[in-house]
Amino acid sequence: MLTNITVADTDLDNIIPNISDYKFSGQANFNDQIAEARKDVYRLVYADMENSFPSKTHSALKTEVEKVKDFSETPNLKDAIIRLALAKIYKGNNLLELADAYEMEASHIPLRYHYDIDGDNVVDVGEINERSKYVFGR
Q1: Digit-coded pLDDT (tens) for 34-87
Q2: How far apart are CA 138 and CA 123, in angstroms?
Q3: How many CB atoms lie within 10 A of CB 55?
Q4: Nearest to 6 by CA among 39, 38, 47
Q5: SS3 state at 69
Q6: Helix-strand-coil percent breakdown of the chain, rounded to 5?
Q7: Which of 37, 59, 95, 134 could lock 85 by a disulfide, CB 3.0 to 4.6 Å apart?
């Protein structure tokens, strides 16, 4: 699931330097929380691509989502995974206000990614997908 985007404990430390204080006894890292956050972002990307390609089957969409990559200059998907992982860590430690703050921060990050349709490792104009989180009107 979104294997092209790597998130580690050090990425969480860059946002919250003392995040390791919130590990449970015997917990070596935050891989479980990161994996759950990655699933949440995967679902968002899958739903976005499902709206973009309504005629594709489930297996075809899964194949397309696996090709998704983040932009190096603005890694929106990675930032969303990090914020959601922090929210899950704080929820696990019953710090619900902090968890809500990071969930809200993640929800304001626009879905901006690209997927390499032709496999040439070059970002073509037709391979960029960008959805704003802000919706105006009814």
Answers
A1: 999 999 999 999 998 898 888 999 999 998 888 888 888 889 999 999 999 999
A2: 34
A3: 5
A4: 38
A5: strand
A6: 55, 10, 40
A7: 37
**Over the Cα atoms of the chain, what is R_g?**
16
Tell me the whole-structure pTM to 2 decimals: 0.86
Q: How confident is the model at residue 137 (pLDDT cuts 50, 70, 90)?
A: low
Find tokens 């946002």 and name the residue: 15
Separation CA 65–CA 68 (nearest Å): 5
- Going by the DSSP 8-state scheme, the letter that residue 120 receives in this structure is S
Q: Would you call 112 helix, strand, or coil by DSSP?
A: strand
